[in-house]
Amino acid sequence: MGRPVFLFASSLLLMVAATTVSAATVKNFSVTRLCNRQVITAVNDSLPGPSLRVREGDKLIIHVFNMSPYNMTIHWHGVFQLLSAWADGPEMITQCAIRPGNKFTYKFRIINQEGTLFWHAHSSFLRATVHGAIIIRPRVRHSYPFPTPYREVPIVLGEWWNANVVDVETQALALGVGPNISNAYTINGWPGDLYPCSQNQMYKHRVKQGKTYLLRIINAAVNSHLFYKIANHNMTVVAVDARYTNPYVTDVVVISPGQTVDVLLTANQPVGSYYMTANNYASASGTAVGVPFDPTTSRGVIIYQGASSSTTPLMPVVPAFNDTPTAHKFFTELTSLVGGPHWVPVPLNVDHKMFVTVGMGLDVCPPNVSCLGRPPVGAALSASMNNVSFVSPTSLSLLQAFFFNVGGVYTTDFPANPPVQFDYTNPSINFDPPLLFAPKGTRITKVKFNSTVEMVMQNTAIIGVENHPMHLHGFDFYVLAQGFGNFNPATDTLNYNLVNPQMRNTVSVPVGGWAVIRFVANNPGVWFMHCHFDGHMSIGLSTAFIVENGPTPDTTLPPPPTDLPQC
User: Fold this and answer.
1) Which region is the signal sequence (predicted)?
2) Above pLDDT 90, what percent of the chain?
3) What class has domain 16-142?
4) Could you please report the per-residue DSSP string of 187-220?
5) Per residue in 467-512, pLDDT tens?
6) 567: which of 38, 96, 195, 217 fits an S-S bond (Cβ 3.0–4.6 Å)?
7) 1 in helix, strand or coil?
8) Predicted pLDDT at 207
9) Is 190 exposed, middle or buried (0-12, 13-18, 19+ CB in 10 A)?
10) CATH class of the domain whose range is 352-555
């Protein structure tokens, strides 16, 4: 990459270049949304932040200057970070936070990846406003495995709070409850004309009739799955999470937090204007605890060249908030483009099998926490995987502790199976006291380099069933199967797709169901796995993998950079 790409932040500065290093400083800025003026932490005085446009094989050098009042890290979501785990970014997993007034340089290559990813803050709820697209094109003289589009358009879906997002999380933890719901959804930073004071705050994209556009859709929302539609238009999915798929025609995209979907949109309708919409898929809304959600709809507009400005745009029929059949159909019918760029066949031999429950629970109310908002009164909302509610270390990151062999930071005894077997998705267990309270701990899994890991993730009905978007850092995985109810190894393994399963870095474990993933642990380091609902990650729905070094220097994690932040 021979040209520098500059990213400036109001609260931090990002500058990317292949060979050039420089620095600049800017400050926080104010924006007006939903009739309110407020200061936000964001990048380049814009929301979303600027798109990072690179090619497969590029080396990136990214200087982050944190001029915000908050501790900060940046995660390059979905980037493999081969032999560069120090640059992955999750706070207290691979690094300590960049403190206000300090800086850190991220260095990594984009290897064997093409498509759409994104970068975002990995501290507190700051991801709500600190995020932007990563657009990875093929190397020069290489082409897409589909017709070259006329234009490429990032579509970043988000959520907006009429509040400081750090305070939203702080209040939830202080009360032992879930975070307040957002006030709006956004499309490329704009809420759209269905919200107060937002008639002129709507994303607009102009198209030429007959042309085909590549929409790079990103769900950067903090706690919401989303449906995305465009009135009277079909879309053809060609990639998810920077992995090429077989073409899949649909009139709706379902996308969970942390996921990306690339679609081809052909402007093949009569000249006019057509609304695009984003609204919530709220899988937990009908559970025993009645989880609240934002029922609103964001909309932008596709405007054909030559359309009259007085024409009222056509509105799509949006899915119902609880339309699980539509969500499940989309999530399960995608398949990989076998033989396409960077495709690797599914490994058939498994070295490390895991069966992991994922779900909510309760915790004993900590000191100075009111715990008035959840049943039973006097308990705080919690979450766990295999009855372990993850706690991040405080004095040293997991990666530092692993690399320098420091004891007392974590243990490698994360259970490969649930300590107690039960009827996982039976609603009658919602408030079964023996199952509600999972112990806290920093218990993780260690695997050998190049071993193949298979994990069944089983949703539970403790507190209530919900679709959980589970993200694995450092790897893509094959999604072998998904289903509802309790996983049955005698029958469900027969339905594994071992030929062309979709590949992801984030999978939505179906509400009241399960998903099976498989990956090759060929990247030494410590890799976070967590729910990409920040409200759930922060209360324990996480774990981590240690992948040991390989036998050669080019399979061994190098030492940390000298400017790695200290706790």
Assistant:
1) 1-23
2) 79
3) mainly beta
4) ETTB--TTSTT-TT---EEEE-TT-EEEEEEEE-
5) 999 999 999 999 999 999 999 999 999 999 999 999 999 999 999 9
6) 96
7) coil
8) 98
9) buried
10) mainly beta
